[in-house]
Amino acid sequence: MTNEANLKLRHMATLTAGYPFRGTVPVVPNSGVIAIQMKDVSLRDGICWQTCVETQLSGKRDPDWLQSGDILFAARGNNNYAVAVTTGASNLRIQAVASPHFYIIRTKGSDVLSEYLTWLLNQRPSQRYFEQNAEGSVAKSIRRTVLENCPVIIPSLSKQRAIVGLSQKLLQEQRFLEQLVKNGDQLMTTIATNLLGDLKG
């Protein structure tokens, strides 16, 4: 049994690379297969399924179809973050793969929530670990072994659920506040437009 203080990500999950597209991901409408690329994900909003393109797989490697509960880790670029696959491909009636810019993290067993693991990988201690171990001066990247050896702490399921719930609540509040600011800006613009209209009259 691995000591909790020495847990690594590889102890709690399996890691695979995204599908090895050669060059640009080809766009093939009505293929029933979609590819998730870097442009389709964000730290705050997760996966934007509506922007994913349909494509065709031509390689010899069997695709690792994404499943609900998987985690995508952006391994290339200056921002190395994780997003959860919360909408399964089965719900979309299509099959989905991740581009090679991602690692696919799939949890082992039932004692760790993928939402919690996603949250943990995005927190400052984990982010500091990735920054310290990234390779490349311009286009940075995280090697698979670095991600596999990322330290993790897995509390009880009840505590994991509480952390995930709090994180989701804070995100909802952030979006609400941003909408309030946007509404305020629009109101100020309307007032200014009306005033200038009166001045011109």
- Counted beta strands: 9
Taken as a percent bin, the fraction of beta residues is 15-25%
Q: How is the largest sheet built, in terms of strand order?
A: 1-9-6-7
CATH superfamily of the largest domain: DNA methylase specificity domains
**CATH third-level topology of the largest domain:** Adenine-n6-DNA-methyltransferase TaqI, Chain A, domain 2
Overall radius of gyration? 21 Å
Distance between the termini: 80 Å
Q: State the name of the first-level CATH class of the largest domain.
A: Alpha Beta
Query: Helicity range of the residues?
Result: 25-40%
Can you tell me the overall shape?
globular
Can you tell me about this structure?
The protein is an alpha+beta fold and 201 residues long. The protein folds into two domains: 4-154, DNA methylase specificity domains (Adenine-n6-DNA-methyltransferase TaqI, Chain A, domain 2, Alpha-Beta Complex), CATH 3.90.220.20; 155-201. It contains six helices and nine strands, in the order H-E-E-E-E-E-E-E-H-E-E-H-H-H-H. It has helices at residues 9-12, 89-92, 114-121, 124-133, 144-148, 157-200; strands at 13-17, 33-36, 41-42, 46-47, 53-54, 71-74, 82-84, 95-98, 102-107. The strands form three sheets. The chain has a four-stranded antiparallel beta sheet. A hairpin with a 3-residue loop joins strand 3 (41-42) and strand 4. The radius of gyration is 21 Å and the shape is globular. The mean pLDDT is 86.
